Amino acid sequence: QESWAFIASVRQNILFGSQYNEEKYNRVVKACALDRDFKLFPYGDQTLVGERGVSLSGGQKARISLARALYHSADIYLLDDPLSAVDTHVAKHLFQKCCVEYLKNKTRILVTHQIQFLKDAHQILVLNDGECVAIGSYTQLKERGIDLMSYQRQTDGPNAKRAMKRSTSFTPSMVSSLSEGSEVTDVREPIEVDEQEVKAELKMIGSVESTVYKDYIKAGAGPLLITLTILFIIASQVLYQGSDYWLSL
C-alpha cells in the first residue's frame, strides 16, 4: 500500500529502466489519470521528483506507482488497495480504465474496501479478521444473503470518516481531477527543461571536532563501558598473538 518514488523525473519513475514507447506510455498515463497532473507540473512529465517523492501528493505517488506497474507488462497484477489514496472520482476512473479496460486480458487481484466496484468483479473473496467468510460472484453472494456493508462497517470502525476528513488535503492536482468535463489550462509560462536542477545536499568540509566524538560516546554506553570494551579487544589480540608466539618456541 505504500507508494514510493526515487530521485528522477516523473517519466523515469514510470519507465523504471524500460524502453520508452510513446503510444504505450500515453495509454498508461491516461489510464492512471496522470495527464491532467502533467499539465500542472512545471516541466510536465520531466519534472524531477524529490527524495521519496516528497514533492508529490499521496494520490500522485499512488498513481505513478500504478502507472509503473502497468507499463511493465505482466501476466498477474496484485493491486493492494491502490484506490484508497485517491478521491472517489479518481478511484472510479482508475478502476474502470486500469482494472477493467487496460488490464482486461490479465489476471487481476484487487484488494479494496470500496464495495461499490464489486459488481464488476468476476470473483469476490470476503475476508474478515484474516479468515475467508465468503467466496463467489456478486450475484451469488447476494442470493446467499451476505451483507457486504456489515463487513465494511466492522473494518472501518466509527471513526473512519472523521479520520478521513482530518487527513484529506487538497492539492492543485487533486482539484483538477474533481470535475470530469473541465479542461485544465496551464497558467505558467513555458520553461525549458534544461533549466531544471537538482539541489545539492548541504555538506560541511573539514575535520570532525573532538567534541563530536565526546558527545557520541556520552550518547552511547558511556566512557566506562567504552574503555572496558577497548581493553577487552586489546587483551583478546594479545592472547591471540601470544598463542602463536608460544607455539613458535
Overview of the molecule:
- The chain has 249 residues and is mainly α.
- It folds into 2 domains: 8-178, P-loop containing nucleotide triphosphate hydrolases (Rossmann fold, 3-Layer(aba) Sandwich), CATH 3.40.50.300; 210-248.
- Helix content is 46%, strand content 10%.
- It is built from 11 helices and 6 strands.
- The strands form 3 sheets. The chain has a two-stranded antiparallel sheet with strand order 1-2.
- Strand 5 (124-128) and strand 6 (131-136) form a beta hairpin.
- Helix 2 (22-31) packs across helix 5 (88-102).
- It is elongated.
- 16% of the residues are buried.
Largest sheet: 2 strands, antiparallel
The parts where pLDDT drops under 50 for at least 5 residues are 158-194
CATH topological fold name of the largest domain: Rossmann fold
State the CATH architecture of the largest domain: 3-Layer(aba) Sandwich
Mean pLDDT: 76
What is the rounded Rg? 28 Å
Number of folding domains? 2
Shape: elongated
Percent range for helical residues?
Answer: 40-55%
Q: Tell me the structural class.
A: mainly alpha
The run of helices and strands is EHHHEHEHEEEHHHHHH
How many helix segments?
11
**Share in β-strands:** 5-15%
Protein name: ABC transporter domain-containing protein
Keywords: ATP-binding, Membrane, Nucleotide-binding, Transmembrane, Transmembrane helix
Transmembrane segments: 221-240
Pfam families: ABC_tran
